[in-house]
Design a protein that fits this description.
With 486 residues, the chain is mainly beta. The strands form eight sheets. The protein has an 18-stranded parallel β-sheet that branches. Strands 3-4-5-6 form a four-stranded antiparallel β-sheet, with no helix packed on it. β1 and β2 form a beta hairpin. About 3% of the residues have low confidence.
């Protein structure tokens, strides 16, 4: 044969050479968690392994005599193989150390091997990352476990309740006005100014591996027109653009895209899962599901979230929201993922870093309850200032200069309303382009304060420069300038 290790899509397309220059490769086994593949090379009498993309080839065991089959017991950290030349079954650690001879007599021509190993307990996390920050979420039902391989920080609550078990290899910080209805375990330290209703433990916490992804994409560009629809069959594409109000229709199978762009708002990804088979959307360099994006699953809706997986290889930031409705597993092991405020998630996020902004709701696939649905999550609230005895009653509309100014990374804007009414507070560039709507809705009379974190509607940091914030309440309108310095 060609003496190679190769791979392809499940339909046989996109064949790739991963490892070449072998002599007589036979068996192969995969360690999905570690992103490693193992094989025997009967011609060079070795057992070798490499990354899924074929890089970092290692000789694990040498000096064999025609090795054939190979199997892995990942829970025990062992690999097993048959040696045709010596008529033996042997095993060793996954790194090739501590070789043992298990069966040495009674065999003639051992070729294949299989293991009956106990099923490993699968740890399902709603959030899994190397660093996690949570801001004032709206959890009300058991949400699923949260794990960080680094730090896990829960910022000041609204007050907020987290119905989750929290684990972290690094420090866990729980600021005031937070209630944790679950166990909290850190390998290093726990700083708690909130309330923990479960067990608080400082003890061993293992790193949980992020998924190892490797794929490529290519093909034609596809565009979903504004307010229109486009159906795509499983396959490989270059850039898929989803415009405002459009509907992208997908079905069970595997998709490969260099980019999945979302330049507008209120678009839908509709996925037909009537076959009962899963769908995987693999994106190479740019996955964004922006403002008011909604994922709709046919025919069973939210209950089929486990059948949907979005993967991305990108290292640039991934932004989901604002007010998005997301169903599925979202894997971005190289990137920071932000769930922008007022968004909803049924499924999981696995990323290099995770930021959950305020007023989001996230539930694991198996969590009880249901999401409110697109557009039904209450909008963010503001912190009303305490009116002290030496403050005069609010008799007029007021908009104060932001403080600090210039600022980095955030600033606060104060305003006052003499009567209840519709309020809109927005940030604009000096060219008049809308950058971020901080609030739009009904508010009571009083004094209020809001923070702007220097990000746009997609959760991306905006550039250094001069911006304008515009306050509208009834017939009243006022604007002021602010300066962001990076």
């Amino acid at each position: 044969g060609p003496d190679k290790v190769q791979r392809a899509n499940l339909d046989g397309s996109s064949v790739e050479d991963l490892v070449t220059g072998l002599i007589l490769p036979y068996g192969i086994a995969l360690d999905l968690a570690a992103g490693k593949m193992y094989w025997t090379d009967a011609g060079s009498d070795k057992i070798q392994r490499a990354n899924f993309d074929g890089s970092s080839v290692e000789d694990l065991v040498t000096g064999l005599d025609f090795p054939f089959g190979i199997a892995l017991d990942l829970a025990a950290g062992k690999m097993y193989w048959t040696d045709f030349g010596t008529a033996k079954i042997q095993r060793a650690n996954l790194d090739g150390t501590s070789i043992e001879e298990l069966v040495t007599t009674g065999l003639s021509t051992p070729l294949g091997i299989a293991l009956d190993v106990p099923a490993q307990a699968v740890k399902d996390f709603v959030l899994l990352s190397n660093k996690i920050t949570l801001k004032r979420t709206k959890q009300s039902t058991p949400a699923g476990d949260i794990h960080s391989n680094g730090t896990l920080t829960i910022e000041k609550g609204d007050p907020s309740t987290y119905n989750s078990n929290l684990t972290a290899v690094g420090k866990i910080t729980i600021q005031k006005d937070n209630t944790i209805n679950g166990d909290v375990t850190s390998a290093t330290s726990i700083s708690n100014s909130g309330k923990i209703n479960g067990t608080k433990t400082i003890g061993p916490v293992a790193n949980e591996p992020l998924p190892s992804l490797s794929y490529s994409a290519g093909g034609s560009n596809k565009t979903v027109p504004s307010g229109g629809a486009l159906s795509l069959a499983p396959g490989s594409y270059n850039i898929v653009t989803l415009n405002s109000g459009g509907t992208l229709k997908l079905s069970s199978g595997e998709y490969f895209m260099n980019e999945l762009r979302y330049p507008g708002s209120e678009a839908v990804i509709e996925i037909d899962l009537s076959s009962g088979d899963p769908v995987t959307i693999n994106v190479v360099s740019n996955l964004q599901l922006g403002k008011e994006a909604a994922i709709q699953l046919q025919p069973n809706g939210e209950s089929d979230s486990k059948l949907v997986t979005f993967n991305t290889l990108q290292s640039t930031a991934v932004s989901f929201g604002k007010e998005a409705y997301l169903l599925g597993s979202f894997n971005a092991p190289n990137a920071k993922v932000t769930l922008v405020k007022n968004s909803q998630l049924r499924g999981s996020i696995c990323a290099n870093e995770i930021l959950i902004e305020r007023d989001c709701l996230f539930l694991h696939h198996d969590a009880s309850g249901t999401l409110p649905g697109p557009g039904n999550l209450p909008k963010s609230s503001f912190d009303e200032e305490e009116v002290t005895s030496d403050q005069s009653p609010v008799t007029s509309y007021q908009l104060e200069q932001n403080y600090p100014n210039p600022f980095n990374p955030s600033t606060r804007i104060k305003f006052a309303l003499p009567e209840a009414g519709e309020v809109r507070l927005s940030i604009y560039s000096m060219s008049g382009q809308l950058v971020r709507t901080l609030y739009a809705g009904e508010m009571p009379a009083g004094r209020f304060e809001v923070e702007w974190d220097g990000k746009n509607e997609s959760g991306e940091r905006v550039a250094t420069g001069l911006y304008v914030y515009v306050f509208r309440a009834g017939e009243f309108m006022m604007q002021r300038k602010l300066i962001l310095l990076r």
